[in-house]
Design brief:
Elements: H1 2-16, H2 21-44, E1 47-54, E2 57-63, H3 65-88, H4 94-112, H5 116-134, H6 141-169, H7 181-194, H8 204-210, H9 213-220, H10 222-237, H11 241-264, H12 270-295, H13 299-334, H14 345-349, H15 351-364, H16 371-384, H17 392-423, H18 438-456, H19 458-464, E3 471-474, E4 477-484, E5 492-493, H20 495-533
Antiparallel strand pairs: 1-2, 3-4, 4-5
Helix pairs in contact: 1-2, 1-4, 2-3, 2-4, 3-4, 3-10, 3-13, 3-18, 4-5, 5-6, 6-7, 6-8, 7-10, 8-12, 9-10, 9-13, 10-12, 11-12, 11-17, 12-13, 12-17, 13-15, 13-16, 13-18, 15-17, 15-18, 16-17
Length: 534
């Protein structure tokens, strides 16, 4: 696949010219865009390359539909982060540009690996690269080593998982990993560490706060996507109802605890860090419900919960990248860390940073018609259908998860609104430090646009993913603009029509405002003419 080769080439060129930071980041942007196209092409056609090394040892890379979806989401966000870093990276050393290219290259091989050796090598390179990227900020050794310790714990668990399969099958290829419970257990535990799931979340607060904002965005989105991808892959290989139950319980607890911590947090980057924990908990719980429903032969609920997990991933990735980029812009401009001391971003820093924080915050607060509202509606719809389970134990587990997640949504909304209300819309009396920000603003605007467009055309995402049975039409809503949560219909929502109605009302509001302003100006001119004549 030509785009795959181009992606590797661009990342290597980016590392080679790291002494010219701007050029290095430009190659990173080109590489990330190429990876996005790898995902689109791989979703349609797929590809696979296998190399026989020696004595039957084979290494393999390729893209299937699952890895393609994660490639697209991760590298759309990486493209924005790299674009943002062209100007933002001027505040840091040349090493950062080299390491960001290196991280993007290694993650490409994580998502494309089809054997354990390729995966583990790429996984370790990613961990070490991010360790040094965290160290770009002074006095961050403790936080960087905490990150590395948990990362190596994840690596050890994955090594054990892959060793179990090699001992059983004599191959490192993932295709031999079907229906092995011990492998699934150790791999599951290894991957949820990367998702910051309880109780492996203790490193995130201080580390996100210390890391540069573009690196915090990588920790929050592409890195946690690695863990999420791993859990998805494990469940595709081993349909374990026990692991599904653990996923629901740990996911619900993580969502609640992350939301609770974000509600009480006052640090600018720590609050969204705990929000990441909450969102990943929701993703894990949704995937667990899907597996339990599949085990119970509730295939429609299983498909809808699986689609819900993907929508939660899209919502979190786009909104959280937007938030961290906007926070980084504001933080470096106002030189403040505490939410209570920060304000006036929309007015005093830039419209793009203020609007980025506002739109991402509203999305996380599940304000319609944004993508966060759609994904959390889908999650609650999945959980509310727990009555369909015949097994009372499954009903109890999913209902318990639904209660915790409903509380988490409320707590998270409070925390995010606090962040946005104080920082973006508040007043500022601070001294403003000017920084180069052309590409920073461009990246913020692009991500804000994606947050909006992703919900307007959410029915196209459903169609593209192949879940047409959850698209319908009713009354004045044409098919396929209506999303349904079950068959027969259990709940419905139409983000597309909501956006059209909202857009019309907004347009009407501005027309009325312009008309009033025009009449006011005409009246003022008339009065001035009368005064002059007198």
């Amino acid at each position: 696949m030509l785009t795959f080769d181009f992606a590797i080439l661009f990342f290597i060129l980016g590392m080679a010219v790291f002494f010219n930071k701007s050029l290095s980041y430009i190659f990173a942007v080109l590489g990330a865009i190429s990876c996005t196209f790898v995902g689109f092409e791989g979703y349609i056609n797929g590809f696979s390359y296998q190399i026989n090394v020696f004595n039957g040892l084979s290494l393999s890379i390729g893209v299937d539909k699952l890895s393609a979806v994660f490639l697209i989401i991760a590298y759309v966000c990486f493209s924005a982060i790299a674009l943002y870093s062209i100007d933002f990276g001027k505040l840091f050393s040349k090493t950062m540009s080299f390491l960001i290219n290196f991280t993007m290259l290694s993650m490409l091989f994580i998502f494309c690996a089809k054997d354990a050796i390729t995966f583990l090598v790429a996984f370790e390179i990613t961990n070490i690269s991010l360790f040094f990227l965290i160290l770009e900020k002074s006095n961050s050794y403790k936080q960087a080593y905490k990150f590395l310790a948990f990362s190596e714990g994840s690596s050890v668990l994955l090594m054990i998982a892959f060793a179990i399969i090699f001992a059983h099958s004599g191959t490192f290829l993932f295709q031999a990993y079907q229906n092995n419970y011990l492998f699934a257990l150790f791999a599951f535990l290894g991957f949820i560490i990367k998702m910051d799931i309880v109780p492996t979340h203790v490193w995130i607060g201080q580390t996100y706060s210390k890391a540069p904002s573009n690196i915090a965005a990588i920790l929050s989105v592409p890195l946690t996507l690695v863990g999420t991808y791993g859990v998805f892959r494990v469940f595709s290989l081993e349909k374990s109802v026990f692991l599904a139950i653990i996923a629901v319980i740990l996911g619900a607890l993580s969502a609640f605890w992350g939301a609770l911590q974000s509600a009480r947090e006052t640090q600018l980057k720590t609050l969204p860090a705990y929000s990441t924990m909450e969102n990943n908990g929701m993703i894990l719980a949704s995937l667990g419900v899907s597996m339990i429903a599949r085990y119970s032969n509730l295939n429609i609920l299983a498909d809808f919960s699986y689609l819900t997990a993907i929508f939660l991933i899209i919502s979190h990735s786009l909104s959280k990248t937007t938030m961290f980029l906007s926070i980084g812009h504001a933080k470096e401009t106002l030189q403040k860390e505490n939410i209570d001391d920060l304000g006036g971003i929309l007015k005093n820093v830039s419209k793009s940073a203020g609007f980025g924080m506002l739109i991402s915050g509203l999305s996380f607060s599940a304000v319609p018609p944004l993508i966060g509202f759609v994904s959390e509606w889908m999650l609650l719809e999945s959980l509310f259908q727990s009555y369909k389970f015949q097994d009372n134990f499954f009903k109890l587990i999913v209902t318990f998860a639904g209660i915790l997640i409903a509380l988490a949504i409320g707590l998270s909304s409070f925390g995010i609104k606090k962040l946005v209300g104080f920082s973006s819309l508040g007043k500022s009396i601070q001294t403003i430090k000017k920084i180069p920000d052309f590409t920073i603003k461009l990246a913020e605007n692009l991500m804000s646009a994606l947050v909006i467009l992703s919900v307007i055309f959410s029915f196209l995402i459903v169609f593209y993913l192949g879940y047409n049975n959850f698209l319908d039409g009713i009354l004045g809503v044409p098919k396929p603009a209506l999303m349904v949560s079950s068959r027969p219909i259990f709940g419905v929502v139409s983000p597309f029509m909501f956006a059209i109605v909202f857009g019309f009302l907004l347009f009407f509001y501005f027309i009325v405002k312009i008309f009033k302003q025009k009449n006011k100006n005409s009246y003022s001119v008339g009065r001035w003419s009368q005064i002059k004549r007198k």
